[in-house]
Amino acid sequence: MAKITKIQDSQKNTVSDYLDELKRDFAKYSSQIKKLKKELLKANSEKQPEIIRQIDLIAKEMEKNQKKTTKVTKSRPKERTKSKDKFPKDRKSYR
User: Fold this and answer.
1) Full domain range(s) for residue 42
2) How many structural domains compose the chain?
3) pLDDT 10s digits, 31-71
4) Distance between CA atoms of 42 and 47, rounded to whole angstroms?
5) Rounded to an integer, what distance in angstroms lies between the CA atom of residue 5 and that of residue 37?
6) What is the pTM of this model?
7) Which of 42, 63, 65, 78 has the greatest number of beta carbons closer than 10 A?
């Protein structure tokens, strides 16, 4: 039983580490997009299409990142919580 909990804990750590990495990447993408938006406003009409393409590429990466995060979160085994009786033993309290 102890081995199983150690394995589950290590899996949780790797999953949470992976999720943390995805969050950092997402934050990095967000800051890049903010910078590019500022550049876009200042840029002349010749540079604007290039900046727009860069923003599109980053947005696609952010979308992939979000999908990965969703998959990992959904596939994560739900933690079992030990709870006392969910329902009272005597059914009179329901009436």
Assistant:
1) 30-69
2) 1
3) 999 999 999 999 999 999 999 999 999 999 999 999 988 88
4) 10
5) 47
6) 0.62
7) 65
